[in-house]
Every structure is written in structure tokens, then in C-alpha cells.
Amino acid sequence: MGVKLYYKIDGSGLLADDEFWDEDVKRDSPPFLKSVLHEAEFRPGIVTLDGHADDWNDIDGFEFSLLPALDPDDDKEYKGGKMTVKALHDGKDLFFLLQVDGDYAYAKGNNNKCPSVALMFPIGDHATYHNMGGCKEGTNSCTSKTCKGHEVDMMHFSIGNAIPGRLYGGNLIDNRDGNGGDRFGHLVDLYAWNPHCRYIDGIGPSGNDSSAQNNWKGAWWHTIFTDHSGFVEEDSPYGSDGQKGTYLFEFSRPLRTMDRLQQDAQFTISGSSKMAVAFWYPVDGNPWHGSGHFSINCDWIPLDISPGSSMLPPGGSGDVGGAIALLFSVVSLCISVFVGYRVARPKGIPFTPVGTTMENL
Prior knowledge:
The chain is an alpha+beta fold. Helix content is 11%, strand content 24%. It has 3 helices and 15 strands. The chain has a 15-stranded mixed β-sheet that branches. The longest helix is centred in the C-terminal third of the chain and has 28 residues, at 317-344. It is globular and about 90 Å long.
């Protein structure tokens, strides 16, 4: 899976040619995993989008080996460790957590010497994982008509200018301009038909459309950080290179967006979709290049969006609320019966002997 390396657009709105790459995956390479079903559970109100993983402890995830996407041989596996992918939704937004073991590496302003991650989802019915949608048209002929059905939705986060724990992605300034960019932290919202025809949302070969926006938000963190009060830019590089730990990348976006240009994937509760994840890392301190990314699989990974009714945890807030409601119902019934009895009971009338009464007349 390929993505844009920098937020750089040429005069036509196309992502600059010196940064795109052609994904030509070996067709005889078997998929890493033949049968994986990833599930986004319904768990509202438990995740704070800050790059930390503590609030994900009770969420199941899948652990993947990371192999080079263009040459997925076991002996070329990412040596830093595995990637764990978790997902959930709250009925409105979809959340993802990516955990990747890796020695700390950060170079302010140099994305290629910092880790980077991307997510990709199919939009069109014919969108393939290979060749980023699979449209056969070239740069000068790909349009929403000639490549209809091959659309893929992508999110790419390069952290070279992103402060750990701070939120990036959709913001008022870029969304006001009607595109999927992020001038502050390069967490960008993209779409593509193939590696040669890849654009920031709202920008395309037929012109720009001001109705687009960046629907993603996200943050990153590394487990070597001990200062949880909040970093600022002057704290860069935030840690010492080479320290062992785990990178954390946390993202969210609405299940449904206001896209009317076929540039965003749309998710439905109880529905199924597909996803792919890519990871770049400056191995041995060397800057990575666009086609040098690792992938969790050689094809799409199925993604199910679970309904809420089937995901209430045993002994959770739903059961407690039900017990409390039952208790109040029983108490109310008892009070009603007691009050009714008191009202219906005949009031006593003092008995006065007749003889005594006549004598006093």
C-alpha cells in the first residue's frame, strides 16, 4: 500500500510526481495471512484520543508480522517487532490503535527519519489492494469517470512535525479551504485510483471541490516518554534515539462522512468493510523511501463493525442499570400497594351506647 510522503501538491493538484511510487507486488507471493477477521467492537465512552493505549487494555486486537510490501519474504521482516491493530466504535466514530515495537527515532522536520503509518480502505466495488485501487488509466487519463469503481480511501500520518500526544488531522483552517490536508502535523486524508493518481481529498484532475474536508484525527506516542503533562515543540526530540519501546498511533473518523465526491469510505453498523495498514521506519537510522514500507498483509483484511446490542459486557454498566431499575420498580410497587390499602381501609367510627345518649336528651 502506497501513500503520499509529504503534503506537497504540484500546480495541477496532483501529489508531486517525485514522491509517488508504483506498487508492483509480486503476484506469486502468498498472502501473509489467509483468514483474518478484524472486528470493531461497540464500546462507547472508553477511548480518549491522545496517543496513549491504557484505555484500550480491554479491547482485543490482532498481532501481525510486518513484511516488505513489495518483497514479502520472511527473512526481510521488520526486525523491531510486531504490529498490533485494534479497532472499536461508539456508534458515531470509528477508532483505531496501532502499536508497533521499535527503538525510538525522531528527527524534527524530517519525516523520512521518523516512523510513519497509513490506513487504506476500499471505496469502489472494484477497488483492489494491489496497485492502490487498480485503475489502469495513467496520470493524464485517470478521472472519476475513467476510474469509476476503483476508488480507495487513505489516511497517512508522518510525525516529523507532530508533537507527541497532540491532536492532528482535520482542523478549521484546512477544512475551511475544502481539502483533506493538515498543514500542522501531516495527518492527511487522501483518495486514489492507482499509485499514479493519488490526491488530497477535494483536489483532482478535473479541478478542486470546496466541499471536501479532512475527517481524520489522530495522535502518536512512545512508551519511553515519562512526561505526561504535555509536550510542546521546544521539547523536541522528546526522547533519546535508540531507546527500546513501542510506538502508539491512535486515530478516529466518523463512521459516515458528508463526502459526495466518492473520496471517503463509508462504514455501517453491522456491516463489513476491508482495510490495510502500512508502516515506514528508518531502519538502521537510514531515511526510508516511499516503496520501502512494511505491510500487515498482502491483501485486504476484513473489518466488521459490530452492533451495540451484542457487545454489552457481562456485569457492565448495562447490567447494573437494569438491576437498579428493577429495584426501584419493586419498591414503587410495594409503596403503591401500601398506599392503596390505607386509602381503601374503612375509617373507624366511635360507638356511643343508645341508652346513654337518650338520657342526655
